[in-house]
Amino acid sequence: MHAEQEAHFQSFVAARWTHLVRTAYLLTGDPHDAEDVTQTALAKAYRSWRRVSRMDSPEAYVRRMLVTCNSDRFRKRRVRERLTDAVPDTSVRDNAVAWADERSVLMDALAGLPARQRAVVVMRYWEDLSEAETADVLGCSPGTVKSQASKALAKLRAWPGMDQFATTTTCTTTTRTTTKERAALWTATATSK
Q: In terms of pTM, does the model score above 0.70?
């Protein structure tokens, strides 16, 4: 790789690393796996950076590589990890604890989705991609994105504990700051019934 291409790749990684790892975390549910998947995707992008950098959106291509690398990870390891079903009891319930409880339930529910549905939810509601953009990233049709999103949202709504947090969040969003992720998913699960 030429020095100019090398510098372009390094600046891309420096600018997008955090965002790509966050997306990978949402796909994997584990911070260590997220970094591994991101590194694998970037290593593949590096090998073909000359071609990737000439695309209209190199980030979209790398994001698709993230999804593919995550799918490959599931193919190689058939044993599924299962996050704990019970959240530890807490004695004080302030806003920080309530937010942590909501996030824990949300991440458990997200981890309970099949890989394809989880990828659709992450791309549509966290990454805020359109159905067409999500279909392009996942390599499927927009109709598949719609059906997978519908099934995923139904499973998220039925997940134990999601209903109490969805209604709590709706009532309290004016009194506290919500994150983009939580607000997007709560809105999606509450409004698409």
A: no
